[in-house]
């Protein structure tokens, strides 16, 4: 049975200067050995395409996008989707009015800038488009990300956002982003659904991630692994730490021989 590796992207495999050559080579070896690769990310489908497919990386087997709102095959064709309830975006717009942050909203494909009061430069949302708020009100949304680079602003906005979203949406912290996704959605729920409904029989499940939104995914794994630079809370939930995806893959492939 195929061993499954579900890996985060931002800060884990995808960094500011792209994907390191060692990780690129290791991922190719992982797939060539007949193992299963799942990309589990807060990114939109379009952002995954930009940082993975368009730079020549091999197709994964599956993608968990929008922190679990959308599950696709390796070519980014949707297999399962969960959309936001109508009206939430307008409430978030009102809540963060005047705050120094960037508010995005994402349909099944693209990220749109709803409000930008700080620089938008971030590899987490590498490509975005101006929002037509009226159109977005009548469109299925799968993610509402907020980029908040100032920790003081984060400390102020996060609890207010969680209160607003209680019972209506989930709020996941990823580095200096807050990802608002539909109720019950998380990387862990997406991975569990993928393993049960789509992958079927499989071997051990490894997860690799570096941030708080990876915790639910780590709970599903047989072998949860964190990056060495991960916050202490994330490392505490994992059985091991590594310096890179290449290091973890090399260890697993060695054990498979």
Automatic annotation (TrEMBL):
Keyword Hydrolase: yes
Protein keywords: Hydrolase
EC number: 3.1.3.-
SUPFAM superfamilies for the chain: HAD-like
One matching Pfam family: Hydrolase_3
One Gene Ontology term of the molecular function aspect: magnesium ion binding
Superkingdom of origin organism: Bacteria
Entry keyword Metal-binding: no
Transmembrane segments: none
Any one GO CC term of the record: cytosol
InterPro entries given in the database record: HAD-like_sf, HAD_sf
Record-given protein name: Phosphatase YidA
Organism: Acidipropionibacterium jensenii
Gene name in the database record: yidA_3
């Amino acid at each position: 049975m195929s061993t499954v590796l579900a890996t985060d992207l931002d800060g884990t495999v995808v960094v500011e200067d792209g994907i390191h050559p060692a990780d690129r080579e290791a991922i190719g070896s992982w797939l060539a050995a007949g193992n299963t690769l799942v990309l589990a990310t807060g990114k939109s489908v379009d952002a995954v395409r930009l940082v993975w497919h368009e730079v020549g990386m091999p197709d994964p087997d599956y993608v968990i996008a929008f922190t679990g709102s959308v599950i696709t095959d390796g070519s980014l064709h949707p297999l399962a989707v969960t959309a936001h309830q109508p009206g939430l975006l307008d409430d978030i717009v009102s809540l963060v009015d005047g705050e120094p942050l960037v508010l995005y909203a994402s349909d099944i494909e693209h990220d749109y800038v709803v409000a930008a009061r700080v620089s938008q430069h971030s590899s987490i949302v590498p490509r975005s488009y101006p929002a037509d708020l009226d159109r977005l009100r009548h469109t299925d949304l799968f993610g509402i990300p907020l980029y908040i680079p100032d920790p003081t602003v984060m400390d102020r906005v996060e609890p207010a956002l969680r209160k607003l979203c209680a019972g209506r949406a989930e709020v996941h912290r990823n580095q200096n982003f807050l990802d608002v996704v539909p109720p019950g959605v998380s990387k862990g729920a997406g991975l569990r659904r993928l393993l049960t409904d789509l992958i079927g029989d499989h071997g051990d499940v490894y997860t690799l991630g570096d941030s708080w939104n990876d915790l639910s995914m780590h709970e599903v794994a047989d072998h949860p692994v964190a990056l060495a630079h991960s916050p202490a809370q994330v490392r505490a939930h994992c059985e091991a730490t590594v310096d890179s995806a290449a290091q973890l893959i090399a260890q697993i492939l060695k054990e498979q021989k």
